[in-house]
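Title: Comparing notes on inverse folding

I've been comparing how different people in this forum approach sequence design from structure. To keep things fair, I'm posting one structure and asking everyone to reply with a full sequence. Here's the target:
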């Protein structure tokens, strides 16, 4: 921003590096350029300042398509005064002397020119295309608008150049836009429903797989439990068989031992009996020729020999037995 200092009869101007100044003295250019610094007399000077930096201009307007649909267009234009001296001559950029309060500013004039030119080009282009082509043809609109700016002679006459532009959006009315969005929304909703169904189906499939795995695990556990019971039964049966076999062997051994013992005892009894029988037979054979009285005597002798070993509480001897015995003994 420039600085002007006033002194008696003279003033000093200090320009900014972003403004192109044109100092006219008596109608002739005394100083031109950016960043100028000079003294001037207020009575003979006319000073204009043209900005030379890039400036952004947002533009919003309405247009009608060939199928009579109202659309709003949003554009951003970047422009610069590449011919600032021409601009100072064609547009109102004067800073000294001061402009009247209702004077049109050169910056506003430039934006008005750009806005009307953009509207005329875009409206003419959109009017030849239907709604679907317009909504899907932002690049086409930008190309046509750029060509319109490049071909316009008035911009070059005022030293203005469009350095960049963007077609940000072309939107129909709210109800039309909603109607246009409905098929896509339905498609998105259908895709979402399908994804939800697939997710639920996958969840059901996962639950089924989990249930099958649990059932298979239970079956496997039941089979293993059955095998364990069978194995335990087989082990118990084998143990019982082993115990029974051991008991049988023990019983057979005991029976065999008893049999052998009984046979030995029987043999011993037989041998003893046989010996006794043989002894008795021999004794009887030896007694076969002896008289009865002698046998009686021998019996009494044996009886007398056994008396010390016998417990006789009562002994009854009759007179007949004694007399008979003595008579036989005396004879």
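Reply #1:
Here's my take.
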């Amino acid at each position: 921003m420039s600085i002007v200092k006033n002194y008696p009869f003279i003033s000093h101007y200090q320009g900014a590096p972003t403004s192109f100044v044109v100092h006219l003295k008596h109608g002739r250019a005394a100083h031109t350029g950016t960043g100028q610094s000079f003294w001037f007399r207020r009575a003979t000077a006319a000073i204009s300042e043209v900005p030379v930096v890039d400036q952004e201009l947002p533009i919003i307007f309405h247009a009608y398509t060939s199928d009579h649909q109202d659309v709003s267009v949003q554009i951003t234009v970047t422009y610069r005064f590449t011919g600032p001296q021409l601009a100072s001559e064609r547009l109102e950029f004067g800073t000294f002397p001061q402009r009247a309060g209702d004077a049109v500013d050169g910056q506003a004039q430039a934006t008005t020119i750009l806005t009307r030119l953009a509207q005329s080009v875009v409206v003419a282009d959109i009017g030849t295309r239907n709604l679907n082509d317009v909504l899907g043809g932002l690049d086409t609109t930008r190309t046509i608008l750029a060509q319109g700016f490049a071909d316009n002679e008035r911009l070059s006459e005022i030293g203005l150049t469009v350095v960049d532009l963007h077609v940000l959006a072309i939107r129909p009315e709210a109800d039309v836009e909603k109607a246009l969005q409905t098929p896509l929304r339905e498609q998105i909703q259908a895709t979402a429903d399908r994804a939800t169904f697939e997710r639920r189906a996958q969840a059901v499939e996962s639950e089924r797989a989990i249930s099958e795995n649990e059932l298979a695990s239970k079956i496997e556990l039941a089979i293993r439990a059955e095998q364990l019971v069978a194995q335990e039964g087989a082990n118990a049966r084998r143990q019982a068989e082993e115990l029974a076999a051991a008991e049988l062997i023990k019983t057979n051994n005991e029976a065999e031992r008893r049999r052998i013992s009984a046979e030995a005892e029987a043999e011993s009894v037989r041998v003893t009996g046989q010996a006794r029988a043989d002894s008795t037979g021999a004794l009887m054979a030896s007694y076969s020729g002896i008289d009865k009285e002698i046998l009686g005597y021998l019996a009494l002798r044996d009886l007398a020999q056994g008396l010390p070993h016998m417990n006789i509480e009562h002994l009854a001897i009759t007179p007949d037995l004694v007399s008979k015995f003595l008579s036989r003994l005396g004879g």
